[in-house]
Structure formats: C-alpha cells, structure tokens
Amino acid sequence: MRTRLKDVAKALNLSISTVNAVLRNRSDISKATRRRVFDKVKELNYRPNWVARSLVTQRTQVLGVVVPDLSRSFFTEVIKGIDLVASAIRYHLVLTNTGEDPRREDDEVATLISKQVDGLVIASAHDPGDNVVWRNLSKMGVPFVLVDRAFPNAPFVGVDDERIGFIATTHLVDQGYERIAHLRVPSLSTGIGRVRGYLKALRQHGIRARQDYMVDAEFHSEASGYEATKILLQRSPRPDAIFAASDPIAIGAMQALLEEGVRIPLDCGLIGVGQVRYGEYLKVPLSTVDQHRVEIGKLAAKALLDLVSGQKKPAKPILIEPTLIVRASSLRHPRTPRPRGAQENRARAAIPRNG
Amino acid sequence: MRTRLKDVAKALNLSISTVNAVLRNRSDISKATRRRVFDKVKELNYRPNWVARSLVTQRTQVLGVVVPDLSRSFFTEVIKGIDLVASAIRYHLVLTNTGEDPRREDDEVATLISKQVDGLVIASAHDPGDNVVWRNLSKMGVPFVLVDRAFPNAPFVGVDDERIGFIATTHLVDQGYERIAHLRVPSLSTGIGRVRGYLKALRQHGIRARQDYMVDAEFHSEASGYEATKILLQRSPRPDAIFAASDPIAIGAMQALLEEGVRIPLDCGLIGVGQVRYGEYLKVPLSTVDQHRVEIGKLAAKALLDLVSGQKKPAKPILIEPTLIVRASSLRHPRTPRPRGAQENRARAAIPRNG
DNA sequence: CTGTTAGCGCGTTCAA
DNA sequence: TTGAACGCGCTAACAG
C-alpha cells in the first residue's frame, strides 16, 4: 500500500491538514513541525496521489494530444515540441492516435475530456468544412489548440502553407526553370494552401499555370510521388522542374526521374516540403522547405498553456514562416549566390493573414 | 459544468446509485428505468468522470511510457506499437521523455506512479549495472516492462542484439568480404550485444578480429559515423566491409566512403541496423537489419497488460529475432542467390537465452 | 499555529 | 427493485 497523507500524519501524531499545510507551503507553520513533517515524508517516501488531488482541484497537469497518424514524422516532431515546453512545467502528455477517422477522433476527445485533461492539442481528422470539432470543445469549456490543419475561428498553430508553395516555386523560377509542375495533395487544407502559393508564384512571374502540370499525390507516400511523376513525364513539353507537396512525394519523384534518365537538377529541378531526416543523403540531396515542426509543437503548447492558466483569450491563428533549404536537387545555377542565410533562419511567428 | 451522475439522477427523480447501477449493467434493474436512464444520459450527454472513478477503482486505464529521446525513430515506432494494442482496449498512453538522464527518469517514474498509471513501459536511461530501476518499481508494486535496454531479472522486450551483429556480419562474410570492420557503440547494452555478435560471426568463420577495425561511434549521429569511417580508412590494409551499429552511423559512413572515392559495394560493403525510413533511396540503397520496432512495442504492451490484469507472472525476457534486409550497399555478388525470403519474414518471439 | 469539517464524483456495501 | 451511507485521498474553508 502506498503511503498516504494520513499515514504521515498518524506517524507524527499530527492532523492530516497540518501535514498538508506544510506540503502546500502555508506560511503559518512552525519551523519545528515543518522539519518533522519533511523528514517523515522523506522517510516514508510519501508522494501525493494525483488522482485524488485532481478530483479536488480540477487540474490533472496533463495535456491531451490527438494526432491522426503516429507514423508521420511530422506529428512525432510536433509532439516533441509540445513535450519540450509541457515537461518544463511538469505537465504530462496523453497521446491518442485517431487513424484519420473523424468519428474516432470525436470519441477520443470525449474520453480525454472525461479523463480531465487540462487542455488539448489536436491535429484534426475532420473535414475543414465541419465545425463540429471546436463547437463540441468550446461547449465543454476545455481549452484547445489546433495544429497542422486549420479551422475557421479556432485557435491554430501551423506553418503558412501558401508561403511554402510560394517560396518553393519562386526558388525554382529563380533557378531558371520555366515549366514548373506541382505534385499536389488537394484533399487536405495543408495541400490546398501549397497549391495556392504555387499558383501565386507562377502568376507573379508571368508564367501561365497549366492544368496538366498538376498531378495528385498522397502526402505520406513515396509510391504516389513515383506514379504521379511517371504521368508528368508523359506531358509535352515535359516539365523542367517539380515542386512536390511533401518530401516523401519528392523522394518518389526522384526515383521516377532517375529511372527515366532525367538528370537532376540539370534536366529537372526538384523540391519537396518537410525537411525529412536524411534528405541530404539521398541520391540527389533534396531541396526542401522546412516547416519547423518542433517549433509548431512548442508554440502550440505555449498557446494552450496560456489558455489553461486563463491568462489569455483564444489567440488569433499563429502562422510560422517556413524556411527554404537549398540542396543539390534544385540548384541548377551554382553560380547564383546560394541563400545560405535562409538555412540559418529561426522560425518566427508571423502576423496572421486572416483573423 | 459537466453533467454528473447526480444531475442525471435528479433529472429522473432517481437516486445516484440506481443510475449508477444501470450504467454498470447490474441485472436487477427494471427495463423501464433502464430505458429512462439511458435516454437521459444521452440527452444530457453524460460521461463518467474518470478521475473520480479512478480514485475508487484504483485503475486509470493509462499506461506510462518512458523513453530517453523522442527524436529517435526507434522510440516513436515502439510507441506506435504500444499504442496499437493499448488503444484497442481503450487504454491511453502518458508520455515522458527523460533526455537520457537517469535522475530525471527516476523522478518521472515516481510522478507517473503518483498519477496512478496502471503500468509502465520503460526504455531506461540507467546504467545496466544499476538495479535501482526495477527495485524501486517492484517495491511500489506497479507492473512494468522494459524495452530496448535490458536489465537482469526484469521483464524485458527487445530485439536480440547479438543476433543482429551475427546476422549482419555473417551476411558480409557470405558476400565474400574478408576485412570486416565494425562501427560500434560500446556505451549501451544494445551496442555491446552487437559487438558480441560481430565477434562471434568472425570467429565462426575463422576470421581473426582486429582491434583496429573497431571504432566507436554514437547511435544517433551520422557525423560520428562519418568521423569513425575516416579513421577506419587510415588502417592498412583498409577494411573491405563495414558493419555499422546503426543506420545513422552507416549513413555517415557512406558519406565518408563516397567522398574518398571508395566504391560501394565493390570496394567496401556496408550494412547498418534499424531499417530507417528512406534507407532504400540513399545514394547507395542501404542494407540493414530490421529490429521490428513496432513489434517490440506491441509485445511490450501485451506483456504489460497481462501483468496489469494480473493474469500472468512477470514473464521471461522476450527476444525478437531480427531480419536481414539486403540492398545494394552490401551486395557484391549479385549472382549469389539473394535471400529474398528474409525480407518477408515476420518477427517472432524467440526463446530467451538467459532466464 | 493546529485541528475539524465538508466536499470533489463515483463505486459499493447494506437496508428498505 | 431502489436508495442511503460511507469511503477513495486530497484540498480548503473555518474554528480553536
């Protein structure tokens, strides 16, 4: 049996509340008893029972984290960021994996709430159309912050996807590429933003977008990038650069290009998104756009903890500025001054575009 | 305010315990009240408060997971495995990252226990010499299972590291390599096992081990593999194959080899451990040994849940058989029948060698 | 300075 | 078939 407050009290012939007063650092306790209590606590190895405490205080020191897929390094990195700031103030994280199933998400969130988590970080599997998500949540009065996938009028921390598309595409233009294709993921808000940025960059540089230069792929699948690229290579004229919506897609694309004897970056430039590990050790070191995944987690946790402590109102969406990472796969003109500085940039929270 | 049992009872003019009886599916309740209660529960959207319930039942439906580093895909994959079986029976996971600090580990474990987790999966940061870890734990009576790093006489799930070393080295021998070096990690039990397997394989094939063919590196660091390989290349005669204790080390080694104009696998074979993502897309597709990380998590969770439900005694260590994955980096004799089958093998729990 | 008392929301006797 | 009463371990009033 674990030692309880009662045991400590009994051993000292004190009342429970006196012992408690000592532990809660109440000022009106004599030095003598204070010492006695502390000694006994150490001797008996007493640790307060958090379950009992939580029942009273309505605080568990636990944050719920809901993600659609633990296989994706994006989410594990975000979790790392959350943990970094949460653990610093002795909060714990409860994890749940929804497997991209909105119903399961609702269920898990409900369970987490009944487990009294102090707040939630959610990468929602819901359709951006649904406002079910945050409606239920705000009804329950549980603070929450969304990550990765934004919903209107809900606290959100994520990268600016339109900027990602814009930065990547602009970089390709700068490198002298002219027929820039895009492997997109139109099923997620994240993917849609990147398409917008892509189109915007083309427009800005007076390049006409071609429908047949946009092919669908899946975020997490090298195979989809491979297949999509095979399709792309049948276009005429062939694209001379590819902006892939994710690094896995780009890796599949790289495979397809090399297989067809297309030289990277000479015949075709390639850039992805995500800054996956080992990207620089691939057959051709892969240019990419860093989303600052850990930073997203950190900022989300900070925002959430602000909400939990009631210090701040639900803030406006926080959009992190992505960073271009140039490697060989998109570097056609090595003479062009390579933007080294960009790689060193730290993430900064930018002013949100929509309130 | 969230609805409580009391609210449901009041709304129906029933007593709390009657409502509770319905929800706990007690048999001696009339169909009529049963219906009324269920309807009201749905109407008021009642969810039992897990904190209160846990205080009474001494069960939280939560497992603690303690890992030294959330950056390593090994651990996130193990966590995925744990979650897979835990979530299936509606258990949640509480995460803690100890940052390889034994003291922090002890502290976190204590906190998790005071949060009343039903059991713990621990990848310990302690020195294998310490038996502090499981001594404290068994004193508290909290079920636990160790993963990744074994301690004598404690429930453990992991891969058989000696087999890893043996399999990898034997494979290199089979490919006709004769001067096989090893980039080792002697600071961890895991690394030590791999060294043993390496030496055993050499011995078994009548190859004399050379001290100067073993260079230290760090598990998670490409840079360390790179540096170590540079050292290795100064030996005379040069090694003609390298068994790296991890994939990151192997990736660093690959970089160093290519930089020095050493052809892989012709001049030098290379194999790692870990089956990292994108290993097949590297400059030279990397041979490796799969540790079945997700499987480790699954088995650990199963073993732990058995302990939690009190069905089984602390089992003997469970050692998973690793699987050789052959890719280009170690394939010098393409004519040699490539062990395709090995790639398809599923993990199996093997009989432990020591009790 | 210290002790008494009354909950937090739920589970579990035992009466009615 | 239903309800009253107690306790899980702790916090926080309020007395003394």
Structural class by secondary-structure content of chain A:
alpha/beta
* Unreliable spans of chain A: 335-355
**Number of E-state strands of chain A:** 13
CATH architecture of the largest domain in chain A: 3-Layer(aba) Sandwich
Describe this structure as you would to a colleague.
2 copies of one chain form a homodimer. With 355 residues, the first copy, chain A, is of the alpha/beta class. Chain A is built from 13 helices and 13 strands. Chain A has a 7-stranded mixed beta sheet with strand order 2-1-3-4-5-11-13, sandwiched between helices. A 4-stranded parallel beta sheet of chain A has the order 7-6-8-9, with helices on both faces. A two-stranded antiparallel sheet of chain A has the order 10-12. Chain A folds into 2 domains: 57-157 and 293-319, Response regulator (Rossmann fold, 3-Layer(aba) Sandwich); 161-292 and 322-345, Response regulator (Rossmann fold, 3-Layer(aba) Sandwich), CATH 3.40.50.2300. In chain A, strand 8, helix 11 (247-259) and strand 9 (269-271) form a beta-alpha-beta unit. Strand 2 of chain A pairs antiparallel with strand 2 (92-97) of chain B. Chain A binds a DNA duplex (16 and 16 nucleotides) through helix 2 and helix 4.
Provide a quick synopsis of the model.
Two copies of one chain form a homodimer. By secondary structure, the first copy, chain A, is an alpha/beta fold. The first copy, chain A, is built from 13 helices and 13 strands.
